[in-house]
Amino acid sequence: MDRELVIVSNRLPLSFEKGGGGQLRAKQSSGGLVTAIEPLLQEHGGIWIGSAGTEQDPRIREELAALSEQHHYRYEPIALSAEEQAKFYEGFSNEIIWPLFHDLQSRCNFDPTYWDFYLRVNARFADCAHQVATPNALIWIHDYQLMQVAPVLRREAPDARLVFFLHIPFPPPDIFEKLPWRCQVLEGLLAHTVVGLQTARDTRNFLACLRTFLPDITVGRRAGDLRVVRRNGHETLVGAFPISIDFKDFERASDADDVRRRSTVLRSHYRKDMVTILGIDRLDYTKGIPERLKAFGLFLRQNPGLQRKTSLIQIVVPSRESIPGYQQLKAEIERLVAQVNGEFAEPGWVPINYIHRALPRTELLSLYRTSRVAFITPLKDGMNLVAKEYCACRHENDGVLILSEFAGAATELKAGALLVNPYDQSAGAAALVQAVTMPEAEQRRRMTRLRNQVRRADLGAWLKGFLAHIEEDPATRQETIVEEPAPA
What is the DSSP string of 359-389? Predict the structure, then answer.
């Protein structure tokens, strides 16, 4: 890449905590975005712009400057006020866009002041990017919190190369039309040079929304499934680029000595004939955790012969627990765990092992290695990288992945996974029976397919494919079909 790379995301890939004597320390954050982008910046250099929290602390800039000297890129922090954090992030981003884009519009709070703060904060990110980026820079904007950065930047730098990737699903028109600011959001996205989405379904939904609410667009079909959207003389390339994981890194790390030792200890806690089932999620109502617990309870109720032979390990990573809805979700999960354990537990056997905390990587990889079944059933998910991580860690090509058909990863992993509707408790219970009793030969056939798919379409392939279209000269595009604009 010849251009300077500027990454713009809601948060920097670091969190700050105070140590002894009030000393401020930066800690590397986890998550798919950090895993995907940080190696690219390490290789090519550049700038990462993001919020550093709500504290106006000069020590944050000092700490970031010191960290920047350790690698080839630097950080540019943006400090939000408490009100901005509450109304831009917790408000518009997570009380409107997050539930709406996950088809849960009944959870939306369409407070008009949230939109005002969303525009204000997005403009601050845009101004920062304009100030620090060179004229030829590639500005790569990430996710639903920052969909109005590009219009501001486009006014200040009309020829800038602005790229956007949405990590969450994009809804169909009948859901999206509930958004009072639907046209402004779509116009903001079309200010980019390239818009990347997770799946072909998301791309279809996005194009359908454009045709419905911005009928003056025209769409040209590129080779494959890529589209060129034209409006007011501007072109935006739109396509699906499913994000992935670093397969080799997970495969190598999960075979390290410390992981092997911990895996041996974990196995020693269970009888040899015990099948452990793993669920791991961030605390969020989109993850389908209560529905999963109910399906597991039904599985035990319908299959007494499999009681005492199966155990669910459900990990819930704390998230947004200051928000009342998330507190209620946590209480519901704990109630369901207690209900199932109260109904079925016996001395020496607890059906559900519930863990409410983030796990160290060694512990997580050990659970991937030792759990015969991964039970991953979000109500809706942009991708779900946990499903891919589980497959990468199955060195013996055994194990079974039960996956929601509403996860973005289902498109890629359907050949080997057991796909279920997370709203259907009976289907979830039946999938558990199939997974727990699956012959080893069938496990190996399925897991081999899964591992080959994740290995082939890994993080490197995602970056290579996305960056190839980012760097492409629009003047060289060869379009094969020109579609008619939507009817007036």
Answer: PPHHHHHHHHHH-SEEEE--SSBS--HHHHH
Distances (CA, A) of 81 to 22, 24, 50, 93, 120: 21, 19, 14, 16, 12
Give pLDDT tens digits for 56-65: 667 777 778 7
Are 417 and 387 in contact by the 8 Å Cβ rule? The answer is yes
β-sheet with 352-355: strand ranges across: 352-355, 310-317, 275-282, 373-376, 400-404, 418-420
Q: Which of 143, 202, 381, 458 is catalytic?
A: 381
Q: Are 88 and 114 in contact (CB under 8 A)?
A: yes
Residue pair 309/273 in contact (Cβ under 8 Å)? The answer is yes
Q: Using one digit for the tens of pLDDT, what is the confidence trace for 262-310?
A: 999 999 999 888 999 999 999 999 999 999 999 999 999 999 999 999 9
The amino acid occupying position 110 is F
Q: Is position 102 annotated as part of the catalytic site?
A: no
CB atoms within 10 A of CB 233: 5
pLDDT in tens, 155-169: 999 999 999 999 999
For the entire predicted model, the pTM comes to 0.93
Residue type, 4: E
Catalytic residue among 167, 192, 281, 458: 167
Is residue 192 annotated as part of the catalytic site, yes or no?
no
Cβ-defined contacts of 461-466 (< 8 Å, 24+): 461/244, 462/36, 462/241, 462/242, 462/243, 462/244, 463/36, 463/40, 465/241, 466/165, 466/194, 466/196, 466/241
* Cα–Cα distance measured from residue 347 to residue 44, given in angstroms and rounded to the nearest whole number: 57
For the chain, percent helix, then strand, then coil, each to nearest 5? 50, 20, 30
Domains, the chain:
5-243+463-475 (3.40.50.2000), 247-456 (3.40.50.2000)
Which strand (E) or helix (H) includes residue 6? Answer: strand 5-11
Report residue 77 as tokens: 């922090």
CA distance 115 to 96: 10
